[in-house]
Design goal:
This protein has six helices and 13 strands. With 201 residues, it is of the alpha/beta class. Helix 1 links the parallel strand 1 and strand 2. The chain starts with a strand and ends with a helix.
């Protein structure tokens, strides 16, 4: 069973529908005991970093997220769900993230381009990720964001895109994988990425 964390933020139901299309058993839940018992866990996120972190804490879900990650449960962050895995964000200084990965989330530096970055961009794969197996060479995915992760360790970056410079598109290590784009809005490529997560062990 895949648990999609419901903390009042994020595109929960479109992500759930995408997994159901792939034949997965899915539950959208805010109950720590259900998340702890899940075979896989998804942390979506839409909106401001600070609001998302405050809602997670208010819902009492920070500890169970850290627990399932530490136990090796396959874990997927989507959009702000990726950003919250880091230590903090320029969007909301002073609001700590989950601190799973070292580094900060920075505002996009995209001279002459609109921020937020909204639209389709190609992925350039940098490191192995189980999410990106068997993707087409020209894989385009859909982004909506004004900030991106800048990890302290370059080896965490599994894919980048170009938007006035190099932008972190995905990060990962072991059981924890995360994408800045929206796979549930990214057509066949996005479904392939979610299918790869569904098969992660």
């Amino acid at each position: 069973m895949i648990a999609i964390i419901d903390y009042g933020m994020g595109n929960l139901h479109s992500a759930a529908k995408a997994f159901v299309r792939l034949g997965a058993e899915v539950t959208v839940t805010d109950r720590p005991e259900v998340i702890a018992a899940a075979a896989k866990v998804v942390l979506p996120g839409v909106g401001a970093f600070g609001d998302c972190m405050r809602n997670l804490r208010r819902a009492g879900l920070v500890d169970v997220i850290r627990e399932v990650i530490a136990r090796g449960v396959p874990f997927l962050g989507i959009c702000v769900g990726l950003q919250m895995l880091f230590e903090g964000s320029e969007e909301d200084p002073g609001v700590p993230g989950l601190g799973v990965f070292p580094g900060m989330v920075r505002r996009l530096a995209a001279p002459g381009l609109k921020v937020p970055h909204m639209g389709w961009n190609s992925l350039e794969l940098r490191q192995f990720s189980p999410l990106f197996q068997n993707l087409p060479k020209a894989a385009y995915v859909y982004f909506v964001h004004s900030y991106h992760a800048v990890p302290d360790e370059a080896s965490l970056v599994t894919a980048v895109t170009d938007y006035g410079g190099t932008v972190t598109a995905a990060v990962g290590r072991g059981n924890v994988q995360a994408v800045q784009f929206h796979p549930e809005k990214s057509g066949a490529v996005g479904l392939s990425i979610l299918a790869n997560f569904k098969e992660m062990v």
